[in-house]
């Protein structure tokens, strides 16, 4: 994983590594937060009381098996399989890990995976050529350019170049615009927020008529999560780094989606008893007791929230695995549109 080091809590000897830097804007937001300090006294206790733990890993596995069954049956009837192209620029360890999981997910589901690994110093022009070739390739139904891209490449230009019919990340401005409009449907919905909603639905948590708070306003998670929840008739409030009363607003929520990119920022006293908490964050914290030297924590303080909430996703094993399952689902959806056309 590429892990950015930021000082954690008040203890100078421990660090948080944030693996969630997907975009320049997220990077800027994090800088603005730099002087804030939070502490969360993890007890390590894992009592049976309190929130139901939403097992994202198991739910993702179920989704992947469903996709595998459908892919096999479409292969039998059409002789074709879905194809996903993953473009990786540079050698970030976290990106390499995620790309490997995506390719493995494809293999298991019977989806053909294509990969292009480009050097860190590739020109924007060369990258755009790779995208154009995949746009033109009829055996490719989904194209994903792993983010973040190196600084010399304009991310917007690259996302704009992906065919909206193959934009399995749903990051193309046209797909985002369609998501934002009532009565219209994007070709693809971004994988992480889609995974959050799927976790709620598959856990039997009602969304319609409920009060939801989304913490974070990124293009990749917070903003589309807001739109998706509104489409399911939740009343949604988005809070962010400049919201003075984020805690008080969050205390009103039946559903909380946490995507602020700050380790354990959301504490137990932010959460209304019985609320559902979906934690999108992945942060690695130094931990000498662990073999790898760190452990992963979310943007929510799991041990404080568990006794209070009605349901909570763990990190790891919550939203992360669902993101990959939704990517495979989007690829299958793109493929189905081409075979039925
Ligand atoms: N164009 C693009 N699309 C993306 O969807 C995209 C991206 N760029 N850049 C990076 C982020 C991050 N991301 C994750 C996917 C899976 C896990 C995941 O499977 N996490 C596991 C394992 C965590 C671990 O061990 O590191 C878990 O939470 O249990 C996490 C994060 C997709 N992203
Ligand atoms: Mg934010």
From TrEMBL:
Coiled-coil ranges (or none): none
A single cellular component GO annotation: cytosol
Swiss-Prot/TrEMBL GO biological process terms: tetrahydrofolate interconversion
Keyword presence, Glycosyltransferase: no
Keywords: Hydrolase, Multifunctional enzyme, NADP, One-carbon metabolism, Oxidoreductase
Tetrahydrofolate dehydrogenase/cyclohydrolase NAD(P)-binding domain: residues covered: 190-337
Ranges where the Tetrahydrofolate dehydrogenase/cyclohydrolase catalytic domain occurs: 54-169
Molecular function via GO: methenyltetrahydrofolate cyclohydrolase activity; methylenetetrahydrofolate dehydrogenase (NADP+) activity
Pathway the protein takes part in: One-carbon metabolism; tetrahydrofolate interconversion
Catalytic activity field: (6R)-5,10-methylene-5,6,7,8-tetrahydrofolate + NADP(+) = (6R)-5,10-methenyltetrahydrofolate + NADPH; (6R)-5,10-methenyltetrahydrofolate + H2O = (6R)-10-formyltetrahydrofolate + H(+)
UniProt keyword Oxidoreductase present: yes
Family: Belongs to the tetrahydrofolate dehydrogenase/cyclohydrolase family.
Subunit structure, interactors included: Homodimer.
Function: Catalyzes the oxidation of 5,10-methylenetetrahydrofolate to 5,10-methenyltetrahydrofolate and then the hydrolysis of 5,10-methenyltetrahydrofolate to 10-formyltetrahydrofolate.
PANTHER family: C-1-TETRAHYDROFOLATE SYNTHASE, CYTOPLASMIC (PTHR48099:SF5), C-1-TETRAHYDROFOLATE SYNTHASE, CYTOPLASMIC-RELATED (PTHR48099)
UniProt name for this protein: Bifunctional protein FolD, variant 2
Organism name: Cymbomonas tetramitiformis
């Amino acid at each position: 994983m590429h892990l950015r080091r930021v000082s954690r809590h008040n203890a100078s000897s421990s660090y948080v590594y944030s693996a969630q830097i997907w975009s320049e804007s997220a990077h800027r937001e994090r800088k603005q937060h730099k002087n804030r300090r939070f502490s969360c006294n993890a007890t390590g206790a894992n009592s049976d009381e309190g929130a139901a733990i939403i097992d994202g890993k198991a739910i993702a596995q179920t989704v992947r098996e469903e996709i595998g069954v459908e892919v096999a049956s479409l292969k039998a009837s059409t002789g074709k399989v879905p194809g996903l192209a993953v473009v990786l620029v540079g050698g970030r360890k976290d990106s390499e890990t995620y790309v490997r999981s995506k390719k493995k997910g494809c293999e298991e589901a019977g989806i053909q995976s294509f990969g292009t690994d480009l050097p860190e110093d590739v020109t924007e022009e060369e990258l755009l050529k790779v995208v154009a070739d995949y746009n033109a390739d009829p055996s490719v139904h989904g194209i994903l350019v792993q983010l973040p891209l190196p600084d010399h490449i304009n991310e917007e230009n690259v996302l704009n170049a992906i065919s909206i019919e193959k934009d399995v990340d749903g990051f193309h401005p046209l797909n985002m615009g369609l998501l934002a409009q009532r009565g219209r449907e994007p070709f693809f919905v971004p994988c992480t927020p889609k995974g959050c909603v799927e976790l709620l639905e598959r856990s039997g948590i009602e969304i319609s008529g409920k009060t939801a708070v989304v913490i974070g306003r990124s293009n990749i998670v917070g903003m589309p999560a807001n739109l998706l929840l509104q489409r399911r008739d939740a009343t949604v409030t988005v809070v962010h780094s400049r919201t003075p009363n984020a805690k008080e607003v969050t205390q009103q929520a039946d559903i909380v989606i946490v995507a602020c990119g700050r380790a354990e920022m959301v504490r137990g006293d932010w959460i209304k008893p019985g609320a559902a908490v979906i934690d999108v964050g992945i942060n690695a914290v130094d931990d000498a007791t662990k073999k790898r030297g760190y452990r992963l924590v979310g943007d929510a303080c799991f041990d404080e929230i568990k006794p209070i909430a009605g349901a909570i996703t763990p990190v790891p094993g919550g939203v992360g695995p669902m993101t990959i399952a939704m990517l495979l689902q989007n690829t299958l959806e793109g493929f189905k549109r081409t075979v039925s056309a």
